[in-house]
Amino acid sequence: MPHAILIHGYATELRASIFRKPCGGDAGFAGLRHEIQNGSVEVFHWGTPMNLSFIESLDLRRYLQLYRTEEATAESLITQSTLREYLDNSNPQTVICHSLGCRLLLNTMNAHGIPESITKIVFLQGDVSTTATITNSDIRHRIISKSLIIENYFCPWDPSLIASMILHGERRIGLMSWNQPGIRNIFSPLLKPINLHTSQLRNRKFLHNVL
Questions:
Q1: What angle do CA 72, 104, 172 make, to 5 degrees?
Q2: Rounded to two decimals, what is the model's pTM?
Q3: What are the structural domains of the chain?
Q4: Tens digit of pLDDT for each residue in 137-183?
Q5: Nearest partner of 26 among 13, 17, 124, judged by Cα
């Protein structure tokens, strides 16, 4: 059984002409590629494939369309049930989720709970409203009793989450502290260039520290 399950965020299955290709088996968690290959860590894949031509890849509306599609997937009871079944079969100790994947896991936790094997959940740059709450009573009890640790890693200058905040008109937990009882909020500065929103996923040392 894998020690940890990874839940990726937005657009891991997107091919945008010459500008971007799908993330592949690691779903962007490049810092844990070796662990994924040897089976000690697994990825729950839930992305929507999209293949854009050169002209289409210049149209920002297509990226928004994909985002809205994957938002709906994260809200889908079918996807949430599938994730819960996957977690039951995998029996992990730790779950690490990123961006929109944090919203999928939170929805799943509230609707279906989580297996008792899970003792740690890590939210990385969560694309989740700061008004969101953990409503599942069993999970809230586990947090209070400290049999379940939930860590929220945030950075105020994540450009992708700033865009999400503007789009939704609500602050995101990946930009600031999440005011939920028992949540460990941890400021983690994004410093690596190219795509700050995914820089933690490429940082092997950082990911091993949070495992």
A1: 90
A2: 0.96
A3: 4-210 (3.40.50)
A4: 999 999 999 999 999 999 999 999 999 999 999 999 999 999 999 99
A5: 13
